[in-house]
Design brief:
The complex is a heterodimer of chains A (251) and B (355). With 251 residues, chain A is α/β, with parallel strands linked by helices. Chain A has a single domain, classed as P-loop containing nucleotide triphosphate hydrolases (Rossmann fold, 3-Layer(aba) Sandwich), CATH 3.40.50. Chain A is built from 9 helices and 10 strands. A 6-stranded mixed β-sheet of chain A has the order 6-7-8-3-9-10, sandwiched between helices. A 4-stranded antiparallel β-sheet of chain A has the order 2-1-4-5, covered by helices on one side. Chain B is mainly α and 355 residues long. Chain B has a two-stranded antiparallel sheet. In chain B, strand 1 and strand 2 form a beta hairpin. The longest helix of chain B is centred in the first third of the chain and has 27 residues. Chain B is globular. Classes of the chains: A alpha/beta (251), B mainly alpha (355).
């Protein structure tokens, strides 16, 4: 079976600085894959390469077996790649509903229409609301995003990505900055994601990683150090060495 | 068991309630409020209250239209342009050259021609320039207007240069209404065109397309990430705004029956932006409030005769001080423009009333 996402020999240089070196990664349909590594390892850069924010210097990216390396960001999105951002990228001055509305309207091809009111697009509104309801955000639908507590904003961040109906979902530290009392809300959402979606999650909290992922890739200085099951990664001495001094759960 | 049922039912009820409210909100967003009739009623009232000032009134209305076209790109899409006069000027010269060199004297078709020419220029320059943002875009749009002005100067034989093209001849409107000395026809003509285009702009900003413009203004990175063709959307709205600015320019030529290269002036681009900031950006009627205040203040202060410390302060050059002062006060104390200030005041009164 073709992988949902396949990355081959991906390289990226910022001038003389290599930030991605021969990265290989394969996400089968429905994968639960974690990407870990110390700060500055190039995790977010990899997400930017996959989504098309950055163009690789060398290598290729395949989505369902189709080469998308040359496609711009919007075209990749339409083919089923969605992401969340490490730092919220929301439409802060708009309501929660309007935030998700935009993603649904773009997916359904309604976003270019200018001859009828946005409020008359019932199908778009209904789908946006359904998305909010599934994340228990319906009560906040009419609040401005900037007025929400940070934890709720992180949920909106995920709601927008899910409203795109992705086949590959890239979660860049979804619980970052959320107080631990609220982080379970986000982790519950991640645990309950549609099993058809291939998910790549970047996360620093190893408890989350080991609970959620069935495979883990360790990225160090732009290159894959190793890849394996949570059990293998936990036992890997090199990974322990990389994380020396940082919190790394032993058994 | 019964308790769980009740709470589940309550939850379902709350959900249905939230859904109804959300659908209502979206459906009602674009509905006309009673307050929206006010500027139009005032515009009609002005016609009867100041019958001898209608020539001036028509100029105010076409500046409202010009400011509205800027609001579409600046207020709604977040495109900062200091060269919007380029499209106003192109429209103005299209209307002038049609009658003078082409012998086409019918005015309403002249507006369409002006819109078309400005739209083509908007699409072409937008396609090139809207890859940039901020200061770069500011300078590039400014240069566009200056280059067009200079082109007009080079083609002096065609455009009349800075001396302009006076004494343009137009057919009576709808074959029946010729311009009168008091500007009554000009005023009603400008008001009718403004109303039609205002409704068009209103439809656009409340459409899904308009919603994506708000998205681009709020967070362009996220718009890319949700698969929005951002550049295309920006070029589209820039083209529409250019067309409307072109119509405003054509109205200027037709109602004045002359045009000079001054229409491309930086003053014109900057002035319309000041109007919009005074009135409030991104709120449609800010163009109304801003243009009226700017133009009336300009008119009033120009005629004012004051003596400050024994010095006679009278003359048209002083009006800029008045407008400048108002702009500074607006930027300092009413960031959302005078209309935003009025909205805030209204909200405060409502809150006082409701304990």
């Amino acid at each position: 079976m073709t992988a949902a996402l396949e990355i081959c020999e991906l390289n990226k240089n910022f001038g003389a600085l290599p930030v991605a070196r021969d990265i290989r990664l394969e996400l089968p349909k429905g994968a639960r894959h974690a990407l870990i590594g110390p700060n500055g390892a190039g995790k977010t850069t990899l997400v930017n390469l996959i989504t098309g924010v950055l163009r690789p210097s060398r290598g290729s990216i395949l989505l369902d077996g189709h080469d998308i390396t040359a496609l711009p960001q919007a075209a990749r999105t339409r083919r089923g790649i969605a992401r969340t951002f490490q730092i919220n990228q929301l439409f802060r001055g708009l309501t929660v509903l309007e935030n998700v509305y935009l993603a649904v309207a773009e997916r359904m091809g309604a976003a270019h229409r200018l001859w009828r009111p946005a409020g008359a697009e019932r199908e778009v509104i209904d789908q946006a609301l359904a998305q909010l309801e599934s994340l228990r955000l319906a009560d906040d639908a009419l609040r401005l995003v900037r007025e929400l507590p940070y934890g709720r904003q992180r949920l909106v961040e995920i709601a927008i990505a899910l409203a795109q109906h992705p086949r590959v979902l890239l979660l860049d530290e979804p619980a970052a900055g959320v107080p631990s009392s609220e982080s379970h809300l986000i982790l519950d959402v991640i645990a309950g994601l549609d099993s058809d979606i291939a998910v790549l999650i970047i996360e620093h909290d190893m408890d989350v990683v080991f609970r959620f992922a069935s495979r883990i890739t360790v990225l160090v200085a732009g290159a894959v150090l190793t890849e394996g099951t949570p059990h293998e990664i936990r036992a890997d001495a090199r990974v322990r060495a990389v994380y020396l001094g940082e919190e790394f759960p032993h058994e | 068991m019964a308790a769980t049922d009740t709470s589940a039912a309550a939850a379902a009820h709350a959900l249905a309630d939230a859904r109804t409210r959300a659908v209502d909100f979206m459906a009602r967003r674009h509905h006309f409020g009673v307050a929206e009739a006010l500027p139009w009623l005032l515009a009609i009232a002005a016609f009867f209250l100041f019958p001898d000032r209608m020539a001036f009134g028509s100029q105010v209305l076409l500046m409202v239209l010009f400011a509205l076209s800027l609001d579409l790109i600046l207020g709604f899409a977040g495109i900062v342009s200091l060269g919007h006069a380029a499209f106003f000027g192109l429209g103005a010269y299209t209307a002038a050259l049609l009658t003078l060199r082409g012998g086409w004297e019918e005015q309403i078709s002249g507006l369409f021609a002006a819109a078309a020419v400005a739209a083509v220029a908007g699409a072409a320059t937008g396609w090139l320039l809207l890859r940039y943002r901020g200061l770069t875009l500011l300078v590039l749009t400014l240069s566009t207007a200056i280059m067009l002005q200079e082109l007009g100067n080079v083609l002096r034989d065609l455009t009349g240069g800075y001396d302009g093209l006076p004494g343009l001849i137009f057919k009576p409107l709808l074959g029946a209404f010729d311009y009168d000395l008091f500007g009554h026809v000009a005023y009603l003509y400008a008001l009718a065109v403004l109303f039609v285009l205002f409704m068009v702009v209103r439809m656009i900003v409340y459409s899904p397309f308009g919603q994506t413009l708000a998205g681009i203004r709020e967070n362009v990175a996220r718009m890319h990430a949700i698969g929005s063709p951002v550049h295309l959307r920006l070029v589209a709205v820039y083209t529409i705004a250019a067309a409307i600015a072109g119509v405003a320019g054509a109205l200027f030529t037709q109602t004045n029956q002359y045009v000079t290269l001054g229409v491309f002036d930086f003053d014109n681009s900057a002035g319309v932006m000041v109007m919009l900031i005074l009135g409030g950006t991104g709120r449609l009627y800010g163009a109304f409030v801003g243009a009226v205040i700017y133009m009336v203040l300009q008119d009033y202060i120009s005629k004012l005769k004051l003596t400050v410390w024994g010095l006679a302060v009278d003359g048209p050059q002083y009006w800029q001080f008045g407008v400048g002062l108002l702009l500074v006060l607006t930027v300092l104390f009413a960031r959302r423009g005078l209309l935003g200030l009025i909205e805030d005041a209204g909200r405060l009164v409502m809150r006082e009333r409701r304990p």
